[in-house]
Write a structure and sequence with these properties.
The complex is a heterodimer of chains A (206) and B (137).
Chain A: H1 2-37, E1 40-51, E2 56-67, E3 71-78, E4 82-87, E5 90-94, E6 99-103, H2 108-122, E7 132-138, E8 143-149, H3 152-155, E9 158-166, E10 171-179, E11 184-194
Antiparallel strand pairs in A: 1-2, 1-11, 2-3, 3-4, 4-5, 5-6, 7-8, 8-9, 9-10, 10-11
Chain B: H1 2-21, E1 30-39, E2 42-53, E3 56-62, E4 68-75, E5 80-86, H2 93-111, E6 116-119, E7 124-130
Antiparallel strand pairs in B: 1-2, 1-7, 2-3, 3-4, 4-5, 6-7
The chains are: A alpha+beta (206), B alpha+beta (137).
Chain lengths: 206, 137
């Protein structure tokens, strides 16, 4: 009798693991499909920086635009102005003091920043097993992907990055970046609109 | 004569107010700055927050995306900087040494209503511009 119970439990456990794996795989697939179908995306964002040492918060707001497959505009409007535009191999950095255009192929740091920002926004970083070890949990209203950096340069900065997805459209709704020193930055994407025509000048890098 | 005195008085008030605005002099007070540090090989921009905690100034400097570059404290009486954490790519003994010296000078400048400091020897310019308080979500 004991043997049968043990077998039954083992069977149930195997089934549960399979179901979880299947769900993970399905979620990854749906996010990937949504990313492929997403020609453009535009939204407002609110960024909250939690400073552990100061026990303070800093709020910033802005707008984000994405166009498949390698165009991104990340623009802070309040309380400071700062614009990051990625267009193919070029990055434009614009602050109150200056404008700089950087070739990402000649700058490893910016190549990484651009890659991570893009893949996090679209959500296809879930498939990037080299950069992150990703676990997915599901709750009632969202899918949560917890990503542990695998590469040394990333591990030196981040403990983990958490992406929240809206299950209805499989699009990222919130990005949490937890740093090694305990600081945390939460970026909430709001008023998300997909597949609307964007003016080419949004991604101009000169 | 009265006019001149009034002008001088207004000017004095303005200077005092500017100096007060630039540094967290009172317990629990905090100030935020748009930070810009220019070196010969490039620049760092972002935000710096200073908080007065029991007469010690605690500060954090992070880039616009929220990645923290520095956590430090400044003792205005002893004119000393303590670096708690420095981002890995800047965490070298020679960078720490320059940072400590420059932050002492910079904090002193901010205390006296100046928003910048230049290290002529290393050719580093620090420019801290106050940011208006809070945006609402």
């Amino acid at each position: 009798m004991k043997k049968y119970s043990l077998l039954l439990w083992t069977f149930i456990c195997v089934l549960s693991v399979s179901a979880q794996t299947l769900n993970d795989a399905q979620i990854r697939q749906r996010v990937n499909q949504a990313a492929a179908a997403m020609k453009t995306l535009q939204c407002d964002f609110v960024q909250i920086k939690h400073l552990k040492m100061l026990n303070e918060e800093m709020l910033a707001q802005g707008k984000m635009y994405y166009q498949q497959s390698n165009k991104l505009r990340w623009e802070y409007t309040n309380p400071y102005t700062y614009t990051f535009v990625l267009n193919g191999d070029k990055v434009l950095l614009k602050n109150q003091q200056r404008n700089d255009v950087i070739d990402v192929n000649q700058n490893k740091i910016f190549r990484e920043i651009a890659r991570i920002m893009m893949s996090s926004v679209v959500g296809n970083s879930l498939l990037d097993n080299k950069t992150f070890k990703t676990t997915i949990t599901i709750n009632n209203s969202e899918w949560i992907a917890t990503q542990i950096p695998q590469r040394k340069d990333m591990r030196q900065i981040f403990q983990r990055i958490v992406l929240h997805f809206n299950p209805q459209c499989a699009v990222v709704s919130c990005v949490e970046m937890i740093e090694k020193n305990g600081d945390k930055t939460v970026i909430n994407l709001k008023n998300i609109r997909t597949n609307e025509t964007l003016n080419a000048s949004i991604f101009a890098v000169h | 004569m009265l006019r001149y005195l009034l002008c001088i008085d207004l000017l004095f008030c303005f200077i005092t107010a500017s100096a007060q605005l630039s540094f967290p002099t009172n317990e629990g007070e905090r100030k935020r700055y748009s930070a810009y540090i220019e070196m010969s090989r490039g620049y760092i921009s972002g935000v710096c927050i200073l908080v007065n905690e029991k007469s010690i100034i605690k500060g954090s400097l992070f880039n616009e995306f929220g990645i923290t570059a520095l956590d430090f404290s400044y003792d205005p009486c002893r004119k000393k900087i303590h670096l708690y954490s420095v981002i890995a790519m800047m965490d070298k003994w020679y960078i720490r040494r320059v940072l400590k010296k420059d932050l002492v000078q910079l904090m002193s400048c901010l205390q006296h209503g100046k928003y910048g400091y230049r290290n002529e020897r290393q050719q580093i310019t620090y420019q801290f511009t106050p940011i208006a308080d809070e945006v609402t979500q």
